[in-house]
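Slide 14.
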Amino acid sequence: MNVKIKNNTPFEFEEADINKQVFKKTNNNWFEEINYLRAIAIIAVLIIHTVDDTAYLHILNKMTFTLTYIEELVRFAVPMFVFISGFVLYNKYKTDLPIKEFYLKRFSAIVLPYIFFSVIYNVIFSYHNLSLHTVIQSIFNGNASGQFWYIKLIIKFYIFYPVIVAYYNLIKQYAKENTHIALFSSILIMYLFSWFVYSLDIVAITSDNPLRLLVFFLFGIYVNDNYGRISIFLQEASPKRAILICIPVIILPFFLMFYWIDFRFSTYFLSYVPHYSELALIVEAVLYISSFIMFLYLMLHYKPKGNILKEVGGYSYGIFLIHAIFHNILITYILPLLSIHNSDLIYYVILLSGMSLSSFYSVKLMSKYNITNFILTGKLRNG
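Slide 15: predicted structure.
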């Protein structure tokens, strides 16, 4: 069964001509810079899971303040993965959507590796209380390991992908050149509405923030749909414009980080900022989208030399699945054995480098063989 996705726009032919020029620079409608963005996003995930160990210190000093700022600076990681998912899916399923093929590919590529690693994490972390019931329960709840909440989130976007694209095309049909404004305003209004009207219990339904993160999935669709125009604009952007893009990326984390400072270190900074939570929603969206644009600008202007970043991007989902194993080994066994504690800066340097290198090379090794590659990707290697 194929679902026909309408894609009528007065800019259709002009955009198609521009995209042909861009596609010549890539390989069969593939965007190399998107793979670099995957690498940046997974590195940001590893940094977040490294520096959030400051939560256990309860002491606000120069080190914890700096690490909290860095953590907030790289919190674009999950929204960037959501953005990339929207971009890549719309790039492949823009007009025709073969329902059976679409969901089978999503299941094999995302769900099968997730189920396997959920079992592995249960064996490693919960072997004292291990049972078939607890394993099945953790798979459905997404709590075998902390990072798996993202899998639950992205599965929801995959399930409702036909509806999301239909919504995008409806907005585009009526808003035309103002699609970006109408698109994101409507999503932000819906989320803000759910934030204020607690009596409707919408917040409970969206506890893992699918509505808030939907704006980034839609942004990925919008960027892909207008990629020729956007990439040319970024490639021609002057250094002054690039600096203007970087300014909110550097400044806005200072505003957002005070939630974590108050929460972790029992300070009361937020009592001096009226409606901080509501303002943070909008600031957060601006920060993340600015981060996407900044990194896309950098990838278009300064192609990374060598294959390391490309490899990291290619292995990003495997690294995402496996890195918590090495995180746990390092903080439970290796760092205490070396008498290195989370009050020392070297603790975070070793944790990040050890977790990153172990995850990368483990996934690289597993990708060489049919069975282990299937575990990571849900696909057998060709040949």
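Speaker note: The two ends are 30 Å apart (CA to CA).
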